[in-house]
Input
Amino acid sequence: MSSVKNPLILRQLFHKETSTYTYLLACGNTKEAVLIDPVLDCVERDLKLLQELGVHLVYGMNTHVHADHITGTGKLKEALPDCKSVLGSKSGARADVYVAQDENVKFGNLALECRSTPGHTNGCTTYVLHEHEMAFTGDALLIRGCGRTDFQQGSPSVLFESVHSQIFSLPKHYKLYPAHDYKGVIFHIILLLLFLSMWHFFFPGFSVTTVEEELAHNTRLTKTKEEFIKIMDNLNLPYPKRLDESLPANLMCGVTDPVPS
Amino acid sequence: MSSVKNPLILRQLFHKETSTYTYLLACGNTKEAVLIDPVLDCVERDLKLLQELGVHLVYGMNTHVHADHITGTGKLKEALPDCKSVLGSKSGARADVYVAQDENVKFGNLALECRSTPGHTNGCTTYVLHEHEMAFTGDALLIRGCGRTDFQQGSPSVLFESVHSQIFSLPKHYKLYPAHDYKGVIFHIILLLLFLSMWHFFFPGFSVTTVEEELAHNTRLTKTKEEFIKIMDNLNLPYPKRLDESLPANLMCGVTDPVPS
Output
């Protein structure tokens, strides 16, 4: 096997209002691209960037059914009819392609391995790009934290097992890219904190981590399973502000996805 | 010459209030590190990250004397007395090490080449890491935009020449990392826009670009020099909100830098 890697175009994009990271990945050879966790509000930005980079979107993928923002997948599909939506097979939501454990999502000469990482939601999927030694963890693992487990089929016990068996088992130097830059607090608290100049406490401003870093420094997932469950069961987080609009839309692949006949 | 690169640890860090990017670079072999454009408000975060990564800060570098936030260099030096501050020789501000065109800043087995890129300020310096095919452009070049040129020795004509001769002359595939994610608008306008949900217009959420992308898609620097000067002379931007506190502090390497005897 050649040690020369297939070139990757990678762009980490940020939606400031919900602190959501979207990832554009494209095969440098064939220009086939995927977007992981696109945000409805940013679809125009993403379409423009795809065009500017000269890449062709084949999949709009989500790591899970989001509760804090509406996915851009439906609107992307409207603009780019060749694009297919991808979700974990246990998500309970609509998608063109459902992926299960160990399946691959191919774009050009590159492939994302799907790892089922439930616990934040049932359908949570981590996408691993082995050739470039990185993984996209969604809300299963955040930098120094993790997604909440108190609604949408959440389970701290299941999440603990998912992260340890599917993410922490990757080689230590693998880079991990999460779906958000925050530590599990919710947007309407943050808005207030903005004006108290306390952003940096809840939005540390990190963009990437590694397996090794999280094994050593994750504030929750370095604990024992029992301690982790206790922490997660006592977070007492408020109801996500945008859940009532986000969840129904995301179960249908975003607001503009056409209703099936 | 060996084709095996000296490993680089790179972290792009974000200060949300001023949309400033700070870059942590460390030599993966020796663990010597530099911070480019550290922010005073984020020094505790940065110190913690340095410790967690097990790296040793040798330089706190600035691409220029900032007008929108206070540099973290002074406070970093207070916590880490071995760390030296670095600035462009034409900055007119205080630093331990002044760098001029073509000089190198070494950290471990890696080195940043200094390129003088005045126009936003006189002392603006772009730091190029040739071994990893990337450059840190400060405010000289932003993604699809550039820094303002209407105060602090700014000159659109000089900036145009700087970017074209020192940045656009790099190989097309080089990655470019800017000091900010915005398009030249100012913070107190943005605060208002937050509540009008217009973030994405002024904060596109981009984190990296390439020489090739900016040569093709920069909204200002793809114009002729005459057109560029006209654009920059007619921006009519308001006075930076934090200039009155930032500039005097940054001329002294950050508020906590001791006064020389």
The radius of gyration of chain A is 17 Å. Confidence is low (pLDDT under 50) at residues 184-188, 257-261 of chain A. DSSP finds eight helices and twelve strands in chain A. Chain A touches chain B at residues 11-17, 22, 41-42, 45, 49, 52-53, 181, 194, 197, 199-200, 203-208, 213, 216-217 (CB under 8 Å).
